[in-house]
Amino acid sequence: MIAIDAEEDFDWLRPVSGTSHSTACMHQLGDLQSIVAAYDAAPTYLLTYPVLRDADAVRSLRRHHERGACTLGLQLHTWVTPPLEAADGIAASFSGNLAPALEEAKLLALRDEFVRCFAVQPVVFRYGRYGVSAVTAALLENHGRSE
């Protein structure tokens, strides 16, 4: 299995913030797909909220997914996933440090944006920054499907 963190670029040396990032790296996806296809592999892309908001990246990912050339899943980066209140700072970048209601709101925003983009449910989920909390398993179980 090849799992690829398909995420925004930002400066890891600066304070974690919801505003300063780029998804330009996702525009090279065709090159990566060519490499993995040469090995008859189909990667799993773990998408963050900013990638889901990049129409060009979503279009490219959708084409690969519809051909069966990849699997799509999610990765929660709290600092760029709405709601953005209390999302600044190192501690808040670990979803396990969030209040349960805020963690749930971010998970639902991410999942709903994915469904809006691809009209399917994500099949893989990873919390960014090792962010499992005491309520994470229940949230994933309760919200594994769109309401």
Brief description of this entry?
The protein has 147 residues and is α/β, with parallel strands linked by helices. The chain has helices spanning 29-38, 49-52, 55-66, 100-118, 136-142; strands at residues 3-6, 44-47, 71-76, 125-127.
> What oligomeric state do these chains adopt?
single chain
Question: End-to-end span in angstroms?
Answer: 30 Å
Q: Let me know the number of strands.
A: 4
| Helical fraction | 25-40%
Low-confidence parts lasting 5 or more residues at pLDDT below 50? Answer: none
What is the mean pLDDT? 85
* Rg calculated over all Cα atoms: 15 Å
Could you characterize what this model shows?
By secondary structure, the protein is an alpha/beta fold. 35% of the residues lie in helices and 12% in strands. Strands 1-2-3-4 form a 4-stranded parallel sheet. It starts with a strand and ends in a 5-residue tail after the last helix.
